[in-house]
Amino acid sequence: QVQLVQSGAEMKKPGASMKVSCQASGHTFTSYGVNWVRQAPGQGLEWMGWISGYNGNTNYAQNFQGRVTMTTDTSTSTAYMELRSLRSDDTAVYYCAREGLGHGSNYFDSWGQGTLVTVSS
Amino acid sequence: EIVMTQSPATLSVSPGERATLSCRASQSVSSNLAWHQQKRGQAPRLLIYGASTRATGVPARFSGSGSGTEFTLTISSLQSEDFAVYYCQQYSNWPYSFGQGTKLEIK
Predict the structure, then answer these.
(1) Which residue, A66, A58, A3, A91, is CA-closest to B94?
(2) What is the rounded distance in angstroms from the CA atom of residue B36 to the CA atom of residue A38?
(3) Residue from A104, A18, A36 nearest A72 by CA
(4) Going residue by residue through chain B (107 aa), what tens digit of pLDDT does each one get?
(5) Structural contact between residues A38 and A92, judged by C-beta atoms closer than 8 angstroms
(6) A to B CB pairs, distance under 8 Å
(7) Is the peptide bond preceding residue B15 cis, with omega within 30 degrees of 0?
(8) Do A47 and B97 touch (CB under 8 A)?
(9) A14-24 residue pLDDT tens
(10) Which helix (H) or strand (E) holds A34?
(11) Which residues of A sit within 8 Å Cβ distance of B?
């Protein structure tokens, strides 16, 4: 079955960078896109951006432009999300979510288990 | 940017009763609307996509309706496992956006 397995929890200092991985299995990685969504403690869901598993095209949310880079490694069916210049308000659980390619099919049908990133001095 | 607004923020319902959750988009998203369920300490789970299509394995007591800017998620007879937070999400246009969530709690 479709699975997205994310890397483990991290603790970072302000100003540092984080990189979370999301390894897919049970489907053809290049036939889907991967979204990244974060959730601060006690808060709602915030979309960060999207990357195509097919060609690596990306689209980032304005809030993260210049600080985020999303990449893929099709040889291992893994998506990565790097966030730089971390601040305390980047403390959150970060999720990856699969979406179908093509308008109308681009809903999030499978989610990773989440990765807690804590930013603290 | 499309703003999604959910109401109410919290809904208190007794088991066995019906729950109706609302979601409004600031501009039309056609039928490109999904509902996700999130239980405490868990990742979200897709319930409904295309405004009204149940995802694989979702019980028939969950139904979605609406198009354009007004959407509804109905749970016909609440079970104990349904008490959770529900988010609507539009995937019509980038940036994708979520509502702030409706917490469904036991009355």
Answers:
(1) A58
(2) 14
(3) A36
(4) 999 999 999 999 999 999 999 999 999 999 999 999 999 999 999 999 999 999 999 999 999 999 999 999 999 999 999 999 999 999 999 999 999 999 999 98
(5) yes
(6) 59
(7) no
(8) yes
(9) 999 999 999 99
(10) strand A32-39
(11) 35, 37, 44-47, 50, 59, 61-62, 95, 97, 99, 103-104, 106-114
Say if CB A79 and CB A22 are below 8 A apart: yes
Q: Tell if the CB–CB gap between A46 and B98 is shorter than 8 Å.
A: yes
Coil vs helix vs strand at A31: helix
Residues 6+ apart with CB under 8 A from B19: B11, B13, B74, B75, B78, B82, B104
Provide, as residue numbers in chain A, all residues whose Cβ is less than 8 Å from the Cβ of B99. 44
Binding-face residues of B in 56-85 toward A, CB within 8 A: none
Which residue of chain A has the CA closest to B40?
Answer: A42
| Average pLDDT of chain A to the nearest whole number | 96
For testing the chain A interface, which of B4, B88, B94, B96 should be mutated: the one with the most A CBs within 10 Å?
B96
